[in-house]
Amino acid sequence: MKIATFNINGIKARLPRLLEWLDEFEPDVACLQEIKSVDENFPRLEFEERGWHLETHGQKSFNGVALLSRHPITDVMRRLPSVDGSNEDTDEQARYIEATIKGVRIASIYLPNGNPRPGPKFDYKLAWMERLTAHAARLRNSELPTVLAGDYNVIPEDIDCHNPPAWVDDALTQPESRGWLRAIINLGYTDALRQIKPEGAAYSYWDFQRGAWPKDHGIRIDHLLLSPQAADILLDCDVDRIPRGKEKSSDHTPVWITLDI
Fold first, then answer.
1. Residue from 18, 12, 51 nearest 35 by CA
2. pTM to 2 decimals?
3. Number of structural domains, the chain?
4. Among 112, 76, 108, which Cα is nearest to 92's?
């Protein structure tokens, strides 16, 4: 079972590239972020006529997440619960969708950027990460294989960015941001990429400015975190750099895993 996470940076702008990638790469599940579309305007027909099951949690012009699957999607949950697990969540930003696909609980996540910091956007990021950590603990306790996939907007370590000093004041590298990501891993989750490739750079994002892509001045912010039950059946993980090099690409590129299912 091949599962990929891909921040597409706008479904309207990237639809031809996304369909092309789906046809060529043939994932079983694609977790999308930044669809930037309300649910009713998402181009469902283009996917459904190709045999994809689809669930979205959209928002006009900003954010938005989706799950595409070759298999039926069940038990869909939109929005991240509060820390105590209640569904009384007033968060208006569409950043989280979760469902069961072929016996695996899979989430598509678009974590807040948090810049500028300090300030309300950084506070929102940290509060959101606290909610995600609490929910990750509940998912771990369910004992279902769980994959938390998405754009985390966190650079885990300095090795995960081309020029660490340039990011020292950014919300993506702050001790608090990295600390919450480690908190999820400390629950027993595995960073799939580092499980397969423990050393070396493996960027998933290159800015559109300053020639970042041709110079390979990237960062790693797109992650797949696996519960112990999912980590036990992990076969492979890598970054698919091909989409980023194409015309009218997203500034992100897919990261994927293969599970023994």
1. 12
2. 0.96
3. 1
4. 112
